[in-house]
Amino acid sequence: MDLRPQAHEIIRTWLFYTVLKSHLEHGVLPWTDAAISGFVLDPERKKMSKSKGNVVTPAEHLEQHGADAVRYWSASARLGIDAAFDEQQIKVGRRLAIKILNASRFVLTLERQEGAITEGLDHSMLVQLAGVMELATSGLVEYEHARALDLIERFFWGFTDDYLELVKGRAYGSFGSGAAGSAIGALRLALSVLLRLFAPFLPYVTEEVWSWWREGSIHRAEWPDPKEFEAASADPAEYQVAAWALGEIRKTKALAKRSLRTDVDRVVIREMPERLKIFRGVERDVAEAGKVRSFEYVEATNPSVEVDLAPQD
User: Residue 313: is its pLDDT beyond 80?
Assistant: First the structure.
């Protein structure tokens, strides 16, 4: 056995005595690593105990929110740190699991065939995902599971909120079959990787989605490998600037209390020259996602996006 999980109140007893007994009787260590967890605290950050009557059992929350949601709360706690029981955190986990289901359903029900990944924006997103995969893998190896989960989750929400919206029109065929195939190929590669990254934390929803399009269990599938991204060579800034511009366009519509489908007469992008050059490469997808009729570019040291909405009818 390589790892022994336990709480910190039994370091002096179970941990010390087990190591000592193994050494005296067998001359070896019983394990190479010990994972020391903290206490589970009540919502007022007091240690749970039967005598205080503040123990929360998970049965009710498992029934109400699902096992993945409770596991999400548990996985968000770092080793060595006490964790307060937080139903709001469990609800966040449930929302994440539902989003995985919905986003996966969208990606897998696109009717056009996936093809070679040729578009710069698609490569750029995959380059970012490859970086997240490497950092998350390193976090798990170092027993920093909460950090790994945070990295994966942050990327996923950007993937659903930004990338899906940026390429949705293209995936439906707005710019031809080749561009659609590139978008769908990137979407499905990213989904495959994200499901495997999430699997240790959210085992049930990932297993369900995996069964929709893959044979066997996701928990027996290979961990994502950098070789899966060998074809992805692009500037990650393409995805960054596209998501930034689309976010500013959506923010303007929201502040004006207008529908996200509202047409935009003009968008003025103020940026450094090298960033403006990058943006021109993703202009088509941003225009499609943001309903933008025209762009203007102004060289500036302070980045900004100016959005002129079309008049209301």
Answer: no
